[in-house]
Amino acid sequence: GGPFSLITHEKKPVTDKDFHGQWILIYFGFTHCPDICPEELEKLAEVTELLHKQKNKQNYPFQPLFVSVDPERDTPELVSKYIKDYSPHFIGLTGTRDQVADMCKHYRVYFSQGPKVGDDYIVDHAIVMYLINPNGEFVDYYGRNKNAKEVAYAIEQHMNAFKESNK
User: What residue spans of the chain are helical by DSSP H?
Assistant: First the structure.
């Protein structure tokens, strides 16, 4: 984890500090992804629904974030339309290529634009969700090998441990 400065799908500038006081689960992807991103965002939406059912047990809200690794094509308008297909709770983030690259560097997220075929191309990227606690600290990560129930359960365990240690 680390600092970042991007814009939301509603064109609002945000930094990592705007999310302090919340649990955030970040997925890095792109809107033109043919298969993996949609699968992972469906999983993120399911995790979000499972955790929202438990929210009365937690001290801090849970916020899922989608960060585009394709800032050339992924405008705030396109990101907004894209994330609405998955969950009304998602916040989409994008920015300049340098801003996105800087955040990806802090989170150790690999991404690389593939060869162009006309105007189309694929972006190769790490397929990981990152959990950040309300203090803005990295806590855990979840790959494709975990399903939504496993991810939600693991996050609940981290939330409970955080709650206990901050009494």
Answer: 36-53, 76-84, 97-107, 148-165
Residue numbers in the known binding site are: 33, 37, 125
Domains of the chain: 5-166 (3.40.30.10)
The binding site for Cu cation comprises 33, 37, 125
Among candidate residues 9, 132, 129, the one with its CA nearest the CA of residue 62: 132
Token pair listed for 15: 């930094």
List the pLDDT tens digit at each of the 167 positions of the chain: 788 999 999 999 999 999 999 999 999 988 887 788 889 899 999 999 999 887 666 778 899 999 998 888 899 999 999 999 999 999 999 999 999 989 888 888 866 676 677 777 676 557 789 999 999 999 999 988 999 999 999 999 999 999 888 87
User: Is 148 strand, coil or helix?
Assistant: helix
End-to-end alpha-carbon separation of the chain, Å? Answer: 25
Is the whole model's pTM more than 0.85, yes or no? yes
Tell me how many degrees the CA angle 64-114-83 measures, rounded to the nearest 5: 25
Dist. CA 26–CA 130, nearest whole Å: 5
